[in-house]
Design a protein that fits this description.
- It is a single chain.
- This protein has about 425 residues and is an alpha/beta fold.
- The protein has 2 domains: about 15-290, Aspartate Aminotransferase, domain 2, CATH 3.40.640.10; about 295-434, Aspartate Aminotransferase, domain 1 (Alpha-Beta Complex), CATH 3.90.1150.
- About 40% of the residues lie in helices and about 10% in strands.
- The chain is built from 18 helices and 12 strands.
- It has helices spanning about 5, 15-20, 45-55, 70-80, 90-100, 120-130, 145-150, 170-180, 195, 240-245, 255-260, 265-275, 280-290, 295-315, 335-340, 355-365, 395-400, 415-434; strands at about 85-90, 110-115, 135-140, 155-160, 185-190, 205-210, 225-230, 320, 345-350, 370, 380-385, 405-410.
- The termini are far apart.
- Bound molecules: pyridoxal-5'-phosphate (PLP).
- The site of pyridoxal-5'-phosphate has 16 residues, from helix 5 and helix 6.
- Pyridoxal-5'-phosphate binds near residues 91, 160, 213 and 223.
Length: about 425
């Protein structure tokens, strides 16, 4: 990690979200992180170029693999999540694919929560099958289901801290414990919680992935993703020759033996990012860094607003099944108290009376909430998952993801909460009037 956190003093989250991974540019004194809009870097001499490409020395080679602006973003996320390092990608979906590609081979098997973002369900169901990787979906709340799903070829568990859009909260410590009993890593998508509300690594997760597109960026401007690793998983435990054995894709390099704590991340960068090529642009990294400077402040407001909007809906006769895990009535309350003491995020769903027509009517009649396919913007967002984000899912998969015909998903922004409630109230009034 950077010198910044090697000092004896432990800096707080709010300080690290502003400073981690960066010091003013030594050449110019620039205080903001400079945007290094360059594809490549002039080498000092042939020997140092060779050392970089051999991974004997760490230095900039080509911006598909590394870039100084992107590196600050990676360091900052790793720092806030408590990881050993991080690798950024052009989207959240690229980040999670790369996290898995790095540790999978054809014939392997993944156990995944059935309550995931619809795009992740599609990716796992179709892309993994093309790679000849088997998949078992499990109810994330059922510890025995995780345990029973493990086979000799299983290579990872995958789940979301807070499920999209069902609002289920993962019992991270329990599921990580089961993964570790079987010498498997737990991969957690922490997009909805952000490291401000929950740091899965502190509870035993081994790899944390993010769609930075959402709350990390926070302003709906850029698509990006990032993978961070705890750095404690033993990739030489016999189950992961693909990480531990000499790699044919990197002239026989043994990533875990050579780089230890950073072995998996080095392979993720030097092979997977090199070969799949989904690199984050320096400009988007800059925008994510801008967003992250206010992460804690925005999240405090997001969760306070979400709590009030959820309470309003729970009391409304036209709303049912309000899935906000922060509600006192939620079955997830004990898990929220344990894993999300600062708040249960700001994305949840509810069922609007009148089924599909009711849900769509509500969306037609809101004026302040924006109807679009994103979450985690400072502006409040609304969508009808069954006809959009979760459209490709079968009825069974919709049910597992907590999506019914009248389900509406909200991403509660940071506006005046009275205005958000006023808008929902008037739109629900129009739904009632037919
Ligand atoms: C929980 C979650 N994970 C991953 C993704 C994929 O991220 P991206 O859209 O940045 O590829 C999304 C997108 O909505 C998401 O909600």
């Amino acid at each position: 990690m950077t010198e910044f956190i090697e000092q004896a003093h432990e800096f707080g989250f709010e300080t690290r979200q502003l400073h981690a991974g960066q010091r003013p540019d030594p050449n110019t004194g620039a205080r903001a992180v400079p945007i290094f809009q360059t594809t490549s870097y002039v080498f000092e001499d042939p020997e140092s170029a060779a050392a970089y490409f051999n991974l004997q020395e760490y230095g900039n080679t080509y911006s598909r693999i590394m870039n100084p602006t992107v590196a600050v973003f990676e360091e900052r996320v790793a720092n806030l999540e408590g990881g050993s390092g991080a690798v950024a990608f052009a989207s959240g979906i690229a980040a999670q694919a790369a996290a898995l590609f790095t540790l999978l081979e054809p014939g392997d098997h993944v156990v995944a929560s059935a309550a995931l973002y619809g795009g992740t369900v599609n990716q796992f169901k179709h892309l993994l099958r093309k790679m000849n990787v088997e998949l078992t979906w499990v109810d994330p709340d059922d510890a025995d289901a995780w345990r029973k799903a493990v086979g000799a070829n299983t290579k990872a568990f995958f789940a979301e801290t807070i499920g999209n859009p069902g609002g289920n909260v993962l019992d991270i410590e329990t599921v990580a414990g089961i993964a570790h009993e079987h010498r498997l890593p737990l991969i957690v998508d922490n997009t909805f919680a952000t490291p401000y509300l929950c740091r899965p690594i502190e509870w035993g997760a081994d790899i944390v992935v993010h769609s930075a597109t959402k709350f990390l960026g926070g302003h709906g401007t850029s698509i990006g993703g990032v993978v961070t690793e705890a750095g404690t998983f033993d990739w030489s435990n016999g189950r992961f020759p693909v990480v531990a054995d000499p790699s044919p894709a990197y002239h026989g390099l043994q990533f875990h033996e050579t780089f230890g704590t950073y072995g998996y991340l080095m392979k993720l960068r030097a092979e997977t990012l090199r070969d799949l090529g989904g690199a984050l642009s320096p400009f988007n990294a800059f925008l994510f860094l801008q967003g992250m400077e206010t992460l804690s402040l925005r999240m405090e407001r997001h969760v306070a607003n979400a709590q009030q909007v959820a309470a309003f809906l729970e009391a409304h006769p036209l709303a049912s099944r309000v899935s906000y895990p922060g509600l006192p009535s939620s079955g997830y309350r004990p898990l929220v108290d344990k894993y999300l003491p600062l708040g249960a995020g700001a994305v949840f769903s509810f069922d609007c009376a009148g089924g599909r027509d009711g849900g769509q009517d509500l969306i037609r009649n809101v004026t302040l909430w924006s109807h679009l396919a994103n979450v985690g913007d400072a502006k409040s967002l609304i969508i009808h998952p069954a006809s959009t984000t979760h459209r490709q899912l079968s009825d069974e998969e919709l049910q597992a993801a907590g999506v019914g015909p009248g389900t509406v998903r909200l991403s509660v922004g940071t506006e005046s909460v009275q205005d958000l409630i006023w808008d929902l109230e008037q739109a629900l009034g129009k739904v009632a009037a037919g």
